Batch of 4 targets.
Target 1
Amino acid sequence: MKKPKTLYILILDFDPHLLCPARHTTGDTPVEDLTAATATAEPTPMPTPIPTATPLEMTDDGDRAIIAGDYDRAIEIFQNALANTTDTTVTDKSNLGIGQAYYEQSNYAPALTALRLAAASADTTIAARGQLFPGAVLHQPGTL
């Protein structure tokens, strides 16, 4: 058996004086028409939530920042990834990225610290890349 449909009827009672231009008078006192302001009010749209990147996705963003030459942003991204994970892959990739960004800025002391951490990685690719940069750092004039 089908449920009967519900019919709603809305009855509006308008004051014809409210349909006139913006100001009305009642005797000697002017009365402001507020219907225009309330008639155009629309509900405020809710902002679309922005998904939060995972720490592993953050390391990809950091790599893109290095490629773009935005080393300060890359360091910030990698540090955020480090702060939000205990995953060794993310930690190793972040240390490598931080070291590479500092190296590109000719800031060799923090580059060496981060690259030595990356060189100790269980991931052979990250470890090899981490070992590549310290050799280049030591051949720079005026380094440690």
Target 2
Amino acid sequence: MYPYVIMREKPMFPTCVGKPQEEQLQCFKEALDAHIKKYFYYPTEAKEVGIQGRVNVSFCIDKEGKVKVLGVRGNDECLEEAAKYMIEQLPILIPGKSNGEPKIVTFAYPIVFKLQDDDTYVGLKDVEKCPQFEGCEYVSREKDFECFIEHFNQYLESKGVLPFDGDKDFEEGKVFVGVQIDKKGQTQLFSTNGKTKELEQRARELLEAMPTVKPAIYKGEPRAVRFYYSVKFK
């Protein structure tokens, strides 16, 4: 294995192709930063008890451009697992070379988990009003949750995806997702777990394209909510 910094022909993201040699490291870091920003999530169990910290992840890019995590070091196991997951979502990169031959190249990257003052969310069943799709604005509180789930499922089904409430076996086409609807009513996934990265990415793209809804209300103010769900592609 060769450290990234000593390689003349460095591994690169496709967006870095054509960059001058002296700009390759900066381009690599910027692309990696953008990837982590896209896939970043804060483990619920860590956030609930206020755990923060820094996780150093060492990984390699093999001769085919595939990424493999070599080690993680942080102050909490669930933060380490989250950091490992984010790095494992990296796409296939262009491998580094020495004398024209592909080589295995190592890189180290820190991921910081820091809670913000407004970085809070509540459970879907704990709010005064659930996020509201059009058509749910005037239902009673007793029917609020039911209306949200009904319209959420209708959106999935309109895209050819089935909501699924069975056990947690990884059967074909099934993805477990952690869903957040933020204070602006926009949907993001903070976790995905499926048989393949391709299925996970399909689930992410589909749900994050969901139309904006009215945000949940908690203690009279808009508040982000999180919940877990499972979907099955036909």
Target 3
Amino acid sequence: MGLETGEYITDLVLANPLSSDLKHQGDDHLRLIKKTVQQSFPNINAPVLWTPTDFGLFNPSAGGSITGDTSLNGSLLLGDTTLMGLGSVGLSRRSSTNILYMQGDTSGIILLDNNQNTLMALTPTLINFYKDTSYADNIHSYWGAGNALDIYHDSVNSTINNNVGQLTISNNAVSGLTVIQGENSGGILRNVASFGGATPNTILYVDGIEAMRTVSNTIRCASMPTSAAGLSAGDLWRNGNVVNIV
């Protein structure tokens, strides 16, 4: 019979060569085998360490899906649009933006650490965090359209900037007290001001000690000098029931 032809391994005829083939065609058979192997695996330039089990994980008839556990110690480079499917979760890259997209079903996506602890859960309506979040210096956290609220730390100072409308701080706890504290240069936090509480007052403190509070429609000083000695312009002092300004 005439020598067979082919381009890839699947083109080879297992029954060839026949015992009746001419001897001088033996070298042609060997060249054909080498040609089909090289054209079937054109990029193999190093040992292939996969086992039959490894090859069995990849199922081309199922759309190229991996049907078992596998690991990757290097880079995984895939094309645009859909990159990889993980059950009902798909990973994709948009070539126009170079952004990686993750898309899940309606139940959401959960991210776990190595100990299977939940780090973050993404649902259709909420993103829930189960661990602390950390921002480096000079990294801003923006809220609202047009960066309406900006929170950041610049390695020295912390800043909250509200750029639109009213900035409201609310304490909705029953009889809850809203307190502002400051460090007294000795490593101890002291009250600076407090608002609300069971008897809704505004109280100002000096080094954590009450100095002044609102009572009904007036202001009451907890303590006040009884003379002007040692005071500066604008300071208050009390002479009996009369309050004086230096």
Target 4
Amino acid sequence: MSESFTLYKLIVLYMLEKVDFPLTNGQISEFVLDKGYTTYFKLQQALSEMVEARFVREEITHNRTLYHLTEEGASTLQFFGNKISPAIKNDIDAFFKEHRYELKNEVSVKADYFPNNLGEFSVQCRVIENEANLIDLTLTVPSEKEAQAIRARIPKGAAVVAMCVEGRLLSSEALAQQLAGYAAGGTSKVCFLVGGSFGLDEGIKREASLRLSMSPMTFPHHLARVMLAEQIYRACTINVGTQYHK
């Protein structure tokens, strides 16, 4: 094994040791390639060998691969970390000082889908802090396509509002209070789900933080979207005190 190839592995171990969250293959690759330490293919070979040696633990989902530092990897770094030059360590430290918050946000929300025993698909969305689940949400959907669509479109950390005819009827003022409550509780994003011709999956409605109805009457879902957009705008103007709402 060449000394330079060993260095690539130590760089990855040092990166994982400097943070309290896993790093994705893309995050590691972006930094290493941007600094010109090695090529993409040599880095991937190094990562593969570290997984086999149990220096790192690999976590694979449908859309990304994450790496966790193991005890074996930490011990290896402790013995051989002096092979990493101060200049490279400074590069890594500066990178995390500038990007730590966005890197952590990127990996703190994990979403995946898998077939269940009912012949349908389950979508699991988790918000993770220090290896513990803060939120663990599982939705049941009738198809893999819909599972993928939901997983891709629910924003990170968003409160989910399911639009359905059996939901709560709120005035514009009450909706404004609901949105203000989300903001006061630290939730910066709200995701409103409007289904198609056959409505939303029951699993989605059960797991939503709020079921909301605009009327006991039935509207075409395209029209419902326009009406909902107007009501969201109206609620926001109420909260900021403009003259739109009368």
